[in-house]
Amino acid sequence: MTDALPLPSSPRVIPTVPGPPVIGSVTQLFPHRLRAFLTGAYREHGPVFNVTGLGRTFTVLAGPEANVWAVKSSARLLRSQEAWRANDEAFGVQRSLISVDGEEHRAFRRVEGRTYTRSYLGANLRRALSVVAEDLALLRAGDDLPVAAFCKAVITEQLARVVVNGAARPYLNDLLTFVQTTLMVRVTGQRPRLTETLPGFRRARARSLAMVETLIEAHRRVPPAPDGRAPDLIDDLLAAQAADPAFWSELDLRMAAMGAFIAGMDTAANTLAFVLYRVGQHPELVPALAAEADSAFRDGPPSLEALGALPHLHRFVLECLRLHPIAPAMTRTATQDFTFAGCRIPAGRQVIVATTVPHGLDECFPDAGTFDPGRFAPGRMEHRRPGAFAPFGLGTHICAGSGMAEGLILLNLAAILRTLDLRGDPAYVLREVARPTATPDDRLTLRVAGVRHPAVSLLA
Ligand code: HEM
């Protein structure tokens, strides 16, 4: 008999994914490698395993069973604070929507959530459409559309016009540099702290914060009115501050007003970039998509409901979210000891819930590596299997902007296909980079083979 063997009723010992000394698995935790790494480890070690690196240990909970568990139990057993605290500090605050839990989290979400919804986008659809129409109008037959840059420019301006009644174009590079670098330094650890001292970063930070402060001032000067501007995110924040000044400091307000850019800019733009990558890779699917786009715009700008009801476009986007989920996992801290899949996870342990591992499992999505939008069609609905599909996270911190994100991506895809006849480069091999979420690299372009309808007609 040996002491090392656990008794049947004892918790299982958590296996550790082997890695080189000191650095361990750290390089595999970068966002563009994370899902593949966690999926491989899940196959080898099962639903609980440790990953180590640079003196830290993370316990990973993975597979559909982990997602089902997280929906039920994460609010009680996990907290968000440690994963996001350093990001808060970069904005001079101690808390924000994503870094708090419980009643404080519900209070933030009640105020910030309204203008991230699908229905709010629906009411402001024309503003979003005018942005993509402006950018599409610049393209001619024979041009190459630079996918990543195009998506960043369109989505950032759409968020600015729709969510905060602003204009991001003069600040695009500042916002990208500031937000991406801050997340890469403070959240994903891809850049050293020193990066924040570089003059380019400091300038971008100052200009981005000045943009938000100017917007807040403008909203204070000209409030919404029944016969004027409808309330947007900043108006909602100002109303909340007026109702409870002890809760909302000026810095909280500034952080929350930046929220649409921090949470929405890269996520939605990078997902749209993957959608366009797939358009280039699957010319056989494009005629059905373009036909739906034509029908959507035939009688003028469509409503969001009409767009959502277009089956091929919708399933195409869902399949991109499955195979290219830009937020592959969520990082938390255990608030108390708990047991998952027979293993004891101690209070204080950093936990990764590998939310998108099931996206790549044949047992959830048969022939999971194949791009097949039909798997979302009635009769198959593979994503309905419990715990299978979680591109927007799970539990109380589930993406507050999923309605806005899906709506913008559908709208832009339909507008692009209505306007342009696009061809992928058969020689392009997908290379992903993390900025900080995964995106196709800058070499991805689509050739404009022709202009199908003038961009200006999108708004007619
Ligand atoms: C396809 C695009 C998007 C994806 C895949 C995505 C994914 C996610 C995920 C996985 C989370 C949870 C993070 C965690 O629990 O640690 C999250 C949170 C969040 N997202 Fe998104 N997101 C997208 C777009 C957007 C957009 C466009 C907005 C707003 C304009 C937005 C606003 C938020 C907010 C505010 C949170 C924090 C929610 C909370 O803590 O309660 N997201 N998102």
SSE blueprint and pairings:
Elements: H1 31-45, E1 48-53, E2 56-62, H2 64-77, E3 78-79, H3 81-90, H4 102-112, H5 118-123, H6 125-136, E4 144-146, H7 147-163, H8 172-186, H9 199-221, H10 233-243, H11 250-281, H12 286-297, H13 304-308, H14 311-323, E5 330-334, E6 338-340, E7 343-345, E8 350-354, H15 402-419, E9 420-424, E10 432-434, E11 438-440, E12 445-451
Parallel strand pairs: 2-8
Antiparallel strand pairs: 1-2, 3-5, 4-12, 5-8, 6-7, 9-12, 10-11
The structure holds protoporphyrin IX containing FE (HEM).
Give a verbal description of the structure.
Keywords: Heme, Iron, Metal-binding, Monooxygenase, Oxidoreductase. Its cofactor is heme. GO terms for molecular function: heme binding; iron ion binding; monooxygenase activity; oxidoreductase activity, acting on paired donors, with incorporation or reduction of molecular oxygen. This protein has 460 residues and is of the alpha+beta class. The chain has two domains: 1-90 and 328-392, Uridine Diphospho-n-acetylenolpyruvylglucosamine Reductase, domain 2, CATH 3.30.43; 93-326 and 399-460, Orthogonal Bundle (Cytochrome p450), CATH 1.10.630. 47% of the residues lie in helices and 11% in strands. It has 15 helices and twelve strands. The strands form four sheets. It has a five-stranded mixed β-sheet, sandwiched between helices. Strand 6 and strand 7 form a beta hairpin. The longest helix has 32 residues, at 250-281. The model has no long low-confidence stretch (mean pLDDT 95). The site of protoporphyrin IX containing FE has 24 residues, from helix 11 and helix 15.
